[in-house]
Every structure is written in structure tokens, then in C-alpha cells.
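U., I forgot to send this yesterday:
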Amino acid sequence: YDRYGDIGDFTADCVSVIMMAAVFYVCGGWLDKKRKKKEGTGKSKQEGRRPFMNFMIDDISFDTAIDRIMEMAGEGKHYIVTPNADHIVKLQKDEQFLKIYEKADLVTADGMPLLWIADSLGNSLTEKISGADIMPAVCERAAKEKKSVFLLGGREGVAEKAAANLKKK
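Result:
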């Protein structure tokens, strides 16, 4: 993506999220009815997970999210997603992206617009938990518990620089 932190990009994100919230507000419970028909009447995969537009999101506190991540650390492969306004728009059109979200072990709201949408739809969320906020906290907790952290991805040298920055914090 060619993303920039300018006012135009921010405005476009906000307008997109507001428009999507308005569409889902007007549609009422249509998505919930569709989801219940697809999933049956059973409970969601995890306690505290609730409907958010066309996917499920975890309604937990920041500290509980860190606890869950630390529990998952010793249990094999897991992944976490932190949807933001761009993801919400993409999740409405991209089935493969939606399937990735449906299989995530933890889904947290990365941005206040998501909390506002959830509130307007009657499914308030406890708090914003962005990847940028939780990563340093998880690394700090891992250091205290003598657990290692592996950074994957990015161009050559990026993981090393990120590790150095995390160690400074």
C-alpha cells in the first residue's frame, strides 16, 4: 500500500468508516441474522467475542489481551489481527481476507473509529487495542517472564532495527 499520514488519507479513512457504519445501521440486524443462520445457535469460538459488522471481534481489555497472548505463546501456532478502518472496508469485499480474520485467535480493535461504530451498532467494545500499542507491552512482559520474541517480515535489517527499538523501550 502507498499509505501516507496526511490529512487527506485520514479524512478518506474516516469517511469510509462512517459510510460503512451508516450502511450497517440502516440494514439493522440483517448481518446478525445471516451469521446466525450460517453458524447455527452455538456460542462463538471464544468467550467475549462479539459480532462487529461482518466478522467477530474480541471485547477484552488491554491487560487481558496481553494475558491471552502470553498464554498462546507456549501453545504452538497462533495469530492475532488488529483491524483498522482500512481493514473494515477491505473485509466487506475480500472473502479471503475475511476468512483470515475468522480464523484468528485474537481480534482487537485498532482505532477509535471502530469503537464508535461498535457503539452505534449497540455492541460497545471495552477499549482500543492497537498492534502498535500491544507489541511493546507484550515484549516487556516476555522479557520479565524470560520468553523470547521472534520478529518476522520486512526488508533486510528491519527486524533488527525493530528489536533494537523495543529493547530501548
